[in-house]
Amino acid sequence: MAQKLKDNNFEYIEKWSDYEMLYAGGRKKAIILLNSPDYSNLGDHAIALAERYFFENHFPEYDFIEIACTQYERESVKIKGAIQKEDVLLITGGGNSGDLHLRIQDMISHIIREYRDNKIIVGPQTMFFVGDAYSEMEKRNIKSIYEHHPDLFLTAREHQTAELYDVLFSGDIMRMEVPDIAFLLKYEADEIVWRQGALVCLRQDREHCTELTRQEIYHVLKSCNLNVANYSTLSETEVQLGNRMKKVQRTLETIAGAQVVVTDRLHCMIFCVITDTPCVVLDNKTGKMFAMLKWLEECPKVARCERLVDCKATIQKVMAADVPNERILVKLRAIFDDYAKVLKKFLVEKKEGKNG
What we know:
By secondary structure, the chain is α/β, with parallel strands linked by helices. The chain contains 13 helices and twelve strands.
C-alpha cells in the first residue's frame, strides 16, 4: 500500500503518518479530521492537537484520522472513495469560516456539499464576513449548502459567531457555543521558569487592524523597564504531523518565559492563559479577540487594550495580577465535557435526508 501511495506522488506520504490509515482495508469507523493544517500557523496546529485529544478521549470507539488541507485539495475524489458511511467527518475549528479566507471556506463548503451521507461536525469556529456585496452572495451560497445537509453540527467559539449562525441558518441545524478547543492543551514546565522581558506578537496579514503600532507598543513596554522582543506564532520551518507537538510545546515554553505578552493573535493569547503569562489583548479585523474575552472575564492576567493612552496601565495591571489561571482553565475545560455529551447525542440520532 505504501509503495502504491508513494507512486502516486503525494508529497505528504513520509510526513503525514495518518495517510495510509484512511486507505487501509477493513479499518474500523473513524472520526476523520478534514482541513488539518499543513501550513505554518501554530495556533491552527494547537487546535488540531486539542481536537485529536478531545475526540480520542470522548469517542474511543472511533479511530481518529487526519487529512491535510493539501491532501484534500489534490485527492478529494480518491478520499471520497475511501470514506465509509459510518465515518464521522470533522471539519477543523479556527477562524477561517466566511469570506476572509475563501480558500478554506471553499473547502468547507465542498466537504459539506459532497458528503451528504456522513454526519459532519464543524469544530469551534469564528465565522466572519467583510460586509460587501460579495459577502451577501457568499452568505446565500453557504446557507444553501449547509441547510441541504441532513446531519450537520456547527460549533461557534464565541458569541458573535453563535449569533450569526442563528441569523443565517435554520433551527434544523444543531449547534453549540463553546470556547476555542485549544484551551484543552496543558503545559507543565520541566523546571522552574524565570520570566524575563516582554514579547510582542502582532499579525502581519489581512486580519491586522489595531491602531497601535509596533513601535508605540515597544516604547510603552520599555517605559515599564522591560526588555522587548518580537515574536511570531508562525513557524519558520515546515510543520508535519510528526513534529507538530514539539513545535507547539516550544512555543508554549517561549511564552512561559515572558513577563508579559502584547498580542492581536488569538492563539498567542490562549497560549498565555495556558502558561499563566500576563497578556494584553488587542483586537483584530474579525473582532474575535475581544469576543473571546467573554470566556476569560474571571482571568485578571488577561486584559483588553484599545487606546495607546491606556496601554501602560493595562500592562501594569496584568503584571500585578497574582491569581493563577488554573481555576478558569478548569471551568473552560468542563464546558467540553458538556460538548461531548451533546455530540454523542448528535451521533446516535437518525435524521431524514433532505432534498437538494
